[in-house]
Amino acid sequence: MKLKIIGAGSIGNHLAHAACSLNWEVTVCDVDPEALRRMREEIYPARYGNWDESIGLHLANDEPKGGFDLIAIGTPPDTHLPLAMAAISEMPRAVLVEKPLCQPGLEGAQDIADLALEKNVMVFTGYDHAVGEAAGAIEKVIRSSQLGIIQTLDVEFREHWGGIFAAHPWLEGPQDSYLGYWKRGGGASGEHSHAIHLWQFFAHAAGAGRVVEVQATLDYVNDGTVDYDQLCLLQLRTENGLTGRVVQDVVTHPPRKWARVQGDLGFAEWYSGKSAGTDSVRLGTGDQTSEQVIEKIRPDDFIQELRHLEMMMKGDKFAESPLALERGLETMMVVAAAHRSQQQHRTILIDYTVGWSPTALKEK
Question: How far apart are CA 139 and CA 158, in angstroms?
Answer without folding.
Answer: 22
